[in-house]
Write a structure and sequence with these properties.
By secondary structure, the chain is α/β, with parallel strands linked by helices. It has one domain (about 5-245): Rossmann fold. It has helices at about 15-25, 40-50, 65-80, 105-130, 155-170, 200, 210-225, and strands at about 5-10, 30-35, 55-60, 85-90, 135-140, 180-185, 235. It has a seven-stranded parallel beta sheet, sandwiched between helices. Helix 1 (about 15-25) packs across helix 7 (about 210-225), helix 3 runs parallel beside helix 4 and helix 4 packs parallel to helix 5 (about 155-170). It is globular. The relative contact order is 0.14. The model has no long low-confidence stretch (mean pLDDT about 95). Keywords: Oxidoreductase.
């Protein structure tokens, strides 16, 4: 398997997209480090991966805190010696009128979603550059980076920042053979998929709402060694929604 014995860190791995990404890499033979602030759920997911024959550990991590990120890297390298792949997936959203959004709420979203990408990438890259094959970083952004809805200012700002940070890091890390790319998911249903309506699916060009596996497969593509020509870019995975023209009748 192409990811056999690769060491992969996935932040925000306890739920939703992150959970699927971590499980997918484990199925591909990788050694997976699940990082999340939700320890109870994270430990359950880690145990399930192991029960299915995977190799994984959980590290409780608040990704907006430098000391927690440093500990994540230390535990990873102490356990598995190195790092090959980092998936910066951790994030949170707040949808509140800009008239009411507090500075504390703004800072919390900015630090959780954007500062964490810088912190985790910086520290993981220090380890990756010592590998003969370099490494790969994937940052999970959002279609909200380039299309908006009311009361999404903090979330949108972080996702737009992630895309800009992605190509900046790709440029900075190029001599160390580290690729850096972003994925912008559209509607990815992490709840009960069976409860979606026909109209939910039909409004997509793909004729279906996305699911976490769609994002996990993209991560595999962007982190495969033979895809190292792909760097500094953002891939939109949204079932065609941001390219769809809508007419009022």
């Amino acid at each position: 398997m192409p990811f056999s014995n690769k060491v992969v860190i996935v932040t925000g791995a306890s739920n939703g997209i992150g959970r699927e990404i971590a499980s997918t890499y484990a199925k591909k033979g990788a050694k997976v480090v699940l990082a999340d602030i939700d320890e109870e759920t994270g430990m359950k997911i880690t145990s399930k991966i192991k029960e299915n024959g995977g190799n994984a550990i959980f590290v409780k991590t608040d990704v907006k805190k430098e000391e927690d990120v440093n500990r994540l890297i230390y535990v990873t390298t102490s356990t598995y010696d190195t790092i090959h792949i980092l998936i910066n997936n951790a994030g949170k959203g707040i949808f509140k009128s800009p008239y009411e959004l507090t500075l504390e709420e703004w800072d919390d979203v900015i630090n959780t979603n954007l500062r964490s990408v810088f912190l985790c990438s910086r520290e993981a890259a220090k380890v990756m550059r010592e590998n003969k094959v370099g490494g790969a970083i994937v940052n999970i952004a959002s279609t909200r980076a380039f299309m908006s809805e009311p009361s999404s200012e903090a979330y949108a700002a972080t996702k737009g920042g992630i895309i800009s940070l992605t190509h900046a890091l790709a440029s900075s890390f190029t001599e160390d053979r580290i690729t850096v790319n972003a994925i912008s998911p559209g509607w990815i249903e992490t709840g009960d998929y069976s409860q979606l309506r026909v109209v939910d699916h039909e409004q997509h060009l793909s004729k279906r709402v996305g699911n976490p596996a769609d994002i996990a497969r993209a991560c595999l593509y962007l982190t495969a060694e033979d895809n190292n020509f792909v760097t500094g870019t953002n891939i939109t995975i949204d079932g065609g929604m941001t390219r769809k023209m809508i007419y009022e009748e």
